[in-house]
């Protein structure tokens, strides 16, 4: 059966796009660069949300909701933030439509806003404006707030999940009495993200710091987790920013400490988005479709009956009822696909496409023999196994699959992370064996910029706990004390 | 202690506003008519979301996500929808800001959109545009999709939670092969809403149909649930619409049935919003603050220790640890407020203000006697009870409080629902004893409109399973076969 997906070796980018569409994850909308997240795709996002939300709450955070619109003037208040965000934004200028009398809907020019509103590209400005009213003394600190929301950044070149004009995300915004506490918060949230991405998405990440060039606009320090996709390009999967007192100063947010001394508040912000869906898809999937880690798969086990007569189906159905109860008790989600409008082969292909980790097929002979056919999505292998003890076996296999998927991605990353000491070699590898290149850099933004211009590779991060060693900058030959990770990136 | 809340008898509207702000539920933002939902308010909304989301899934629905922006032209496609929604909307006309060179951020006039985008006031148009691609045959039906999202309707007069320019809601959009199935869906979702509002929010509702005048723009039939607030004004708490084939025709969505015959698809939509927070607050609360039904209270039980010395606190803390474990096992949320920065009286007032259903106070003498002081928020009564069996007692009390709050609201509604047969009496009651007025109406939009103009009362609904009886229209004296419910409304 052709699934209408191009091979990933042939055209990785098209393969990704085909996969997202054919697996019913998302599609483009009539609005430029905005996507529709379809029910199957959204059910994965809901799982991501639920797990992260619990992690945020377990670390003391609460959710809140701030307005979609931000007054234009707010963007002028924090100088470096301006440069980063007051650019490609959707701007609301009017608040009314009217009928022109000939049946056409037109914008009512009499309903022009005095000050234009920006659809939030991120919410630091409106949140810090609000925090001014919430914070007077050290007793009001820390504020540990997160928001689940949609944001808009008008993108010229868009890709489903990876770069869309509107996307869904969470943005944490915290306020602290000391610099140390804010740094600890930013570091803690980086750990939360790394934990989530490695243990749930099964995608290994490098934890690190961004260079000043690549920092979030307004941050003193940006921590990030970087993952490697199967085409050797890097993907930034989450960021956590230490914002210092920049936003507190821009919005005049001071607090009185225990000694009644006034000081500006210290801030962090941190976020992950529907981009994680892109990482999830690109890190594991193959030409047959999605490969989902069991811990985030909306359907973990699918059962397909194979039968000719109704009494055979009845027999199988009775067995599946028992299995379903056993799996539900273990917290494992199972779907029994007994549609009579589709043949088993069609169903096999469909669930393969959708990345269901385990498939159980049961025919009449299986029922006589007390067996089932059990197929793994990750290895594309199948075997005939006993019905006795099947639920336990499935439970064990799901764990094994989760680990195997992670291991495979980790092996891939290790094979595609290379220490490079020579500029020609650096350029050659980027074309011939793309991946993470660990190279020395002289620490200047100018060199970083030149490397980017010549190779399209950027410094993804300076890894945390980086080994210190003497070396020479890959481009300039100037002295350097540590390697940084370069890659072309999404 | 003054909580800064005006008495509700003195100024109901101000009381509501004070309450929302002082109880940390929400506040106005610098953006006209948009609110900030604070962590405590948002935690109630999260509970509402979680319960409703499960109810939707239990009835077969999945979540998805559609774009925030809708092309302007979409609003011209469904004629009656235009009249209802293509009015007070936020309009995006530009997609870029720039620096004017003097440090000011201005809108870049070169980045003007070819077609203006409307920030969704509701999503029927973009969703039916999308469904065209999803539906070919009866096998693709039904589509049972829900979306949790923010929407914007530019309101001139706003009130926190009740009427804000941006609000949060869910909107279900379903597609069916037959009219009967769509009607059954619309009715089912009305039942879901009624069940939720009565059994979780503890607010009794009247289920009914809207008159054609009051229908959703584009609907053939609008079902609604109507609740009565403590000031005698009605509040529409949820609506479910049978849309017929209007949107399918507007967006040309046809399906082939089993006989391969083409027909337009049948539709419903249904929604509830953060307005439910307004209903929750206004239906139960009093001059001392919020009264929350235990099933939606973020904190169900708060424990306040009363002590002078640290060893007393240690003693109390040990006891509370055991109680906490017992309550957690029962799924009851408990907070131990051992802050040493506030006195017990301050804490009592704070939790009263925040509507925590049960308060446990424990002092040293209590510890000696094996007792605690247990205070109910709904009745504002307290008693000294044994520590032995306290967890069971709390569990029982929470159920009792939930029922008591509902009963109180139901009694109030019954006392304030009056059958009226005389026009002067009708007008007098609206001023002197506002509530639901059950009166005959001649069935014409003209009469309905005249009554609205003269009294500001609207027909809230024609109750389902309404008693049929001969009568005369309250205004025109023309014959009528059933009473409808009038009220002034939020």
TrEMBL record, chains A, B:
Aminoacyl-transfer RNA synthetases class-II family profile domain sequence ranges: 39-293
Subcellular location: Cytoplasm
Pfam families registered for this protein in UniProt: HGTP_anticodon, ProRS-C_1, tRNA-synt_2b
EC number(s) given by UniProt: 6.1.1.15
Catalytic EC class: ligase
Catalytic function, reaction form: tRNA(Pro) + L-proline + ATP = L-prolyl-tRNA(Pro) + AMP + diphosphate
GO biological process: prolyl-tRNA aminoacylation
Keyword list, A-Z: Aminoacyl-tRNA synthetase, ATP-binding, Cytoplasm, Ligase, Nucleotide-binding, Protein biosynthesis
A GO MF term: proline-tRNA ligase activity
GO CC terms, sorted: aminoacyl-tRNA synthetase multienzyme complex; cytoplasm
Subunit composition and interactions: Homodimer.
Similarity comment text for this entry: Belongs to the class-II aminoacyl-tRNA synthetase family. ProS type 3 subfamily.
Function comment: Catalyzes the attachment of proline to tRNA(Pro) in a two-step reaction: proline is first activated by ATP to form Pro-AMP and then transferred to the acceptor end of tRNA(Pro).
Entries under NCBIfam families matching the protein: proS_fam_I
Domain notes: Consists of three domains: the N-terminal catalytic domain, the anticodon-binding domain and the C-terminal extension.
Protein name: Proline--tRNA ligase
Protein's gene: proS
